[in-house]
Task: structure prediction
Amino acid sequence: MDFGLFTMFEIREGATQAETFDDWFHLVDMAEKLGLDTVWLGESHFRLNRAVISSPLTVASAVATRTSRIRIGLSVQVLPLANPIRIAEEAAIVDHISKGRLDFGVGRSSFIDAYQGFNINYEESRFRFSESLEIIIKAWGNDSFSHEGEFYSFNNVNVVPKPFQSPHPPVRVAVQSMETFRLVGGMGYPIFIRLQMAVPRVRELIEEYQSARSESGFAGRGGVNLLMPVYVADTEAQALSEPEASAMRQRRAVSDLLATASSQENYDRLKLVSEASYDEVLKEAIFGTPEAVTERILELPDRTGTGRPIAGHEPGRPDPQRVGDQLHAPAD
Result:
């Protein structure tokens, strides 16, 4: 199993933006020294009190220069918001700077406010996403290419540099809406899932993803990254009490985003998340002593139907001294 840290460089209460960058780069350095395997970088726009990573590839480049071992994952780059040729170029550069440590996680987001800010119609997001990903994969090939699509047109372009990894960095797609599981399964890509529903329902959707993979001729079960809340402390009492304020602050932040949900399905799912009590959080969260957390992580394959699942934590802007215990464990 592969352990790491997920962050959008969340802003803790009372911190400035400059302090936020300092805090999180310190934690990235800590993750490297402690032997964690991957740091995953999210993308956030126009939310003053939430997070400061509006360009995950820019931050990935900075992480690459200050580390030598840890892998650097995007979780995720929102493809419809940027020119795909530019993304292909910048991702290839990060792959070289990191000497092949980039994991290229992509998605289209389930919130419309970023699209509104960039003056892009969210109704086009699925089609823009598919076309952008197709262009990026072509751009990473050895030859020049042309493309004539619904949103983009390129004539005889040859992106430089090509990625360090051959044929390109591993690609992983974020899924959240129910229909997306089968869609991405049919494309054959590994997936990210953020736990915003009951585990039995997650298991059903993962089975649909795996069935779609099989029906489309892809071997194996596919790589499934399940991002779950994790907190480790010396005693059970500490593990249950210390993350409470952070976890509940995160749920209050979700309530502020309800008006930007892209669909009724997303709204209903996020509303349940925002209204969850701490007792309800604890039913799915993995909080405990090292021994208890290890046991629960090892149980995840049976609970979720994954081959080797991921446990992770999206910190609700806690004190940076405690974020070293927030784990993101991908599986492939």
